[in-house]
Specification:
Length: 356
């Protein structure tokens, strides 16, 4: 079977209710495509992404932290990760080889594809992101729709757990991510980010922030789907950070809708896990080793209804609304025990395939 058609950014699609879909498509090689599941009852209720972690470290006030209070902060670190599991060397080696093949193909192909314009680049990166998830043994499940926006620009805002998040968002629809400037200097990753039209922001100071807001607003007006993690850094999933307001100013300026997205990482049996979290001082290589050794990982994305800025809405109001939707109606203090997320809202009608 040929690769699925890419949902073009900002392109109109057939008039239909995306939330009525329930798809589980497997290609001819037995590799699973993302599962699109409906949300029951129309508006999705609170489905916090938190996992059980009653001893999660507290978060000091901004004035009590080292460094600038403007710099993104997360208390999460090695203590949030599960104990090291028995290494699955054969599984890890097989997935690592597949992942290297995908990355090598991307490095060689993207410069050539870029010669054919933005639409061709979007289609290529969309397929590359899906291939990365398959190679790493990660199954993508999308609830509440199949695209972030069917037409016109939209600001996609999500909680931030891992390096997997960017790949998962790009595997749903081409997205221009807002990323820290250092990402552009990373080998391979930086080149791919630049090809996807990433908007880089310098966190060293606030002088460049208005220009980034203006650039983001221009992209939204032009019909682009722009993605951002308003927490500014990764959290393990036991708690969530505050949402930075600057990205929401771009949505207000452009009159663009905001698409809140909740990201959850689960084991193959449905249990929430921090095993795939990328937090603290951990290296990307260390996180990759843990993910590749897992006996199946599910990255679940819940696409909540669009939020549209009202006449009296400013960035503070919009950021607060988006955070309530993404993290749940009631924000829990990080020092309190939290219960695992419910999966009752997801009712696929067909057996879901498992990633290799």
């Amino acid at each position: 079977m040929s690769a699925p058609a890419v949902p073009p950014t900002g392109a109109p699609t057939r008039d239909r209710d995306r939330r009525s879909q329930d798809l589980d498509v497997t290609d001819g090689a037995g590799v699973p495509e993302p599962v699109i599941a409906p949300l029951r009852g129309g508006e999705p209720g609170p489905r916090p992404p938190f996992v059980e972690h009653p001893t999660h470290p507290g978060v000091p006030r901004a004035a009590e932290r080292d460094g600038s209070p403007w710099h993104p902060y997360s208390p999460c670190g090695q203590d949030c990760l599960p104990p090291a599991a028995r290494p699955a060397r054969l599984r890890s080696a097989r997935r690592a080889a597949a992942l290297l093949a995908v990355v090598a193909t991307a490095v060689l192909a993207l410069p050539v594809v870029a010669l054919f314009g933005r639409r061709a680049t979007d289609a290529a990166t969309y397929r590359i992101f899906r291939a990365v998830l398959r190679a790493a043994g990660i199954r993508l499940q999308v609830n509440g729709g199949s695209t972030f926006a069917d037409g016109g620009g939209a600001l996609v805002v999500a909680n931030h757990l891992s390096w997997i998040d960017v790949v998962a968002l790009g595997a749903v629809q081409p997205v221009r991510m807002i990323a820290k400037r250092e990402v552009g200097d990373w080998p391979v990753v930086g080149a791919i980010a630049a090809r996807t039209g990433a908007l880089f922001v310098d966190r060293a100071g606030l002088r460049a922030l208005p220009a980034v807001v203006d650039e983001t607003a221009d992209a939204l007006r032009a019909g682009a789907v722009v993605g951002v993690f308003p927490e500014g850094t990764t959290w393990c999933g036991s708690a969530a950070g505050p949402f930075r307001r600057a990205p929401f100013q771009a949505a207000v300026d452009a009159g663009a809708a905001v698409r809140p997205v909740t990201l959850e990482l689960r084991l193959a049996d449905g249990r929430p896990t921090t095993a795939a979290s990328f937090v603290g001082d951990e290296t990307l290589a260390g996180s990759l080793r843990r993910v590749l050794a897992l006996d199946g990982l599910v990255c679940e994305l819940t696409l909540h209804p669009l939020l549209r800025p009202g006449p009296g809405d400013d960035r503070r109001v919009l950021a607060a609304r988006a955070r309530r939707v993404v993290t749940g109606a009631v924000a829990r203090p990080v020092s309190s025990p939290v219960s695992g997320s419910s999966v009752a809202a997801v009712q696929p009608t067909r057996t879901e395939a498992t990633a290799a």
